[in-house]
Design a protein that fits this description.
The chain is mostly helical and 509 residues long. 78% of the residues lie in helices and 0% in strands. This is Kinesin light chain.
């Protein structure tokens, strides 16, 4: 039944109600007339009463229909109102679902970001813990009982730490750094030795004026573009470098490089030495991109002059790897270190200190990439080789320190009091003063164990490293005293050509 039909029914019902109302009035009049008449007709009265009842019934039903229609209208209005509310609620529900979906996406992104930041924080904390164990090159050069290398030593990764602990360059390093591949002329030997001696003692107030006076005299007698001038420029640059005057040192090295290229040729070993010194200097100032091409050119010269399998080439590869590592070029870093390892092992043997140092450097590269397993393997290899070199082949009774540390980690809750340091003998002597790289490896592997939650193993290695460091410092002091005496003896013993040739042979041995 449509809305229009309902309205027609109600309209007709109201018309009927009006008609019934009129009939009711008429029947009331008839009833009054019949009751007042002289002749009382019961039959007529009965008929009128029945009609009145039917009329009343009809009126009541009509009123019910009208009221029902009104009620239906109210219900319909309420229904429309509810539909409108439902529609609005559905729209709000859709909007809220969209907002919830967007909020969930933001929450997931935030959780991922927090998780990533937590991992980065843990990695940075770990790197900070191992950073203090980086090799300090000054001590390595004084401690290693290896051949004196004419290539400048590797510069440390943590430049801030190095600058805060700067110490003078030892005498033999000054000579090697400045004059690799170029024999000092007789007229400069005495002055050269004096400058090196004062600089190695930290007496820069004497060394610098001596260098400047020598430069002035050389330029007057031989001109600026002379190899001897370049030699003094190199020495003065290294003095400035020890004083952290990197800008002045760089200017002097660039001047020396120009002179040596012009007078000795672009492929002379002395040019390579100057290029390397300049690259190291730029590295100390954080200018790794500027240092890298200089280091590569020095490498090319050494390969051409000495051959691609010469140990000096391996030393240059180490420097180049460090420059690339500071630029996060890890593929190149691994390539350079592995090539350096091949050269050292082939030419000097697996027991050479440079092998352990390069393995340690490669492990540090793996650490920076989060490759902890690879780094751990290399650290263990360094310690294993050192142990075999000191105590012989490994067996059940002769274990390397890392294996002992791991066993103590496994048994720490059993017989900790019955596993004293002495159970692995005098292992700390295997990391004595002639192998600071092993001491550094002990610290690095200890930090790695600590990162993995192996605290007993970490304590074992760090305790061993502390014992070794104490012995090393004592011998460093002795070696410095002996080194000064030997240099003075060489200075006083004369400057004959035979003596200098023999000295050069020992330097390049």
């Amino acid at each position: 039944m449509t809305q229009m039909a309902q309205e027609e029914i109600v309209s007709n019902t109201k018309t009927v109600m009006q008609g019934l109302e009129a009939l009711r009035v008429e029947h009331m009049t008839l009833m009054n007339n019949l009751s007042e008449g002289s002749k009382n007709d019961p039959d007529k009265m009965e008929i009128v009463k029945r009609n009145m009842e039917n009329i009343e019934l009809g009126l009541s039903e009509a009123q019910v229909i009208v009221m029902l229609f009104a009620h239906l209208q109210n219900i319909e209005a309420e229904k429309q109102k509810l539909r409108t509310q439902v529609k609005r609620l559905c729209q709000e529900n859709v909007w809220l679902r969209d907002e919830l979906a967007i909020t969930q996406q933001k929450l997931q992104a935030s959780e991922q970001s927090v998780a990533q930041l937590e991992e980065e924080k843990k990695h940075l904390e770990f790197m900070a813990s191992v950073k203090k164990y980086d090799e300090i090159q000054e001590n390595e050069d004084n401690l290693e009982k290896s051949r004196t290398d004419p290539v400048v030593e590797l510069f440390p990764e943590d430049e801030t730490e190095e600058r805060n602990n700067m110490s003078p360059t030892p005498p033999n390093q000054f000579a090697n750094h400045a004059n690799a591949g170029y024999e000092i002329p007789a007229r400069l030997r005495t002055l050269h030795n004096l400058v090196i001696q004062y600089a190695s003692q930290g007496r820069y107030e004497v060394a610098v004026p001596l260098c400047k006076q020598a430069l002035e005299d050389l330029e007057k007698t031989s001109g600026h573009d002379h190899p001897d001038v370049a030699t003094m420029l190199n020495i003065l640059a290294l003095v400035y470098r020890d004083q952290n005057k990197y800008k002045e040192a760089a200017n002097l090295l660039n001047d020396a490089l120009t002179i040596r290229e012009k007078t000795l040729g672009e492929n002379h070993p002395a040019v390579a030495a100057t290029l390397n010194n300049l690259a190291v200097l730029y590295g100390k100032r954080g200018k790794y991109k500027d240092a890298e091409p200089l280091c590569k050119r020095a490498l090319e010269i050494r390969e051409n002059v000495l051959g691609k399998s010469h140990p000096d080439v391996a030393k240059q590869l180490n420097n180049l790897a460090l420059l690339c590592q500071n630029q996060a070029k890890y593929e190149e870093v691994e390539m350079y270190y592995k090539r350096a390892l091949e050269i050292y092992e082939m030419k000097l043997g697996g027991d050479d200190p440079n092998v352990a140092k390069t393995l340690n450097n490669l492990a540090s590269c793996y650490l920076k990439q989060g490759k902890y397993k690879e780094a751990e393997m290399l650290y263990k290899e360094v310690l294993t080789r050192a142990h075999e070199r000191e105590f012989g082949a490994i067996n059940g009774e002769n274990k390397p320190i890392w294996q002992v540390a791991e066993e103590r980690e496994e048994n720490k809750l059993k017989n900790r009091e019955n596993t004293p340091y002495g159970e692995y003998g005098g292992w700390h002597k295997a990391a004595k003063v002639d192998s600071p790289t092993v001491t550094t490896t002990l610290k690095n592997l200890g930090a790695l164990y600590r990162r993995q939650g192996k605290y007993e193993a970490a304590d074992t290695l760090e305790d061993c490293a502390l014992r070794s460091k104490k012995e090393a410092l004592d011998l460093v002091k002795q070696s410095k005293v002996l080194g000064v005496t030997d240099d003075n003896k060489r200075q006083k013993s004369g400057n004959s050509k035979e003596d200098n040739e023999d000295h050069n042979k020992r330097v390049h041995k």
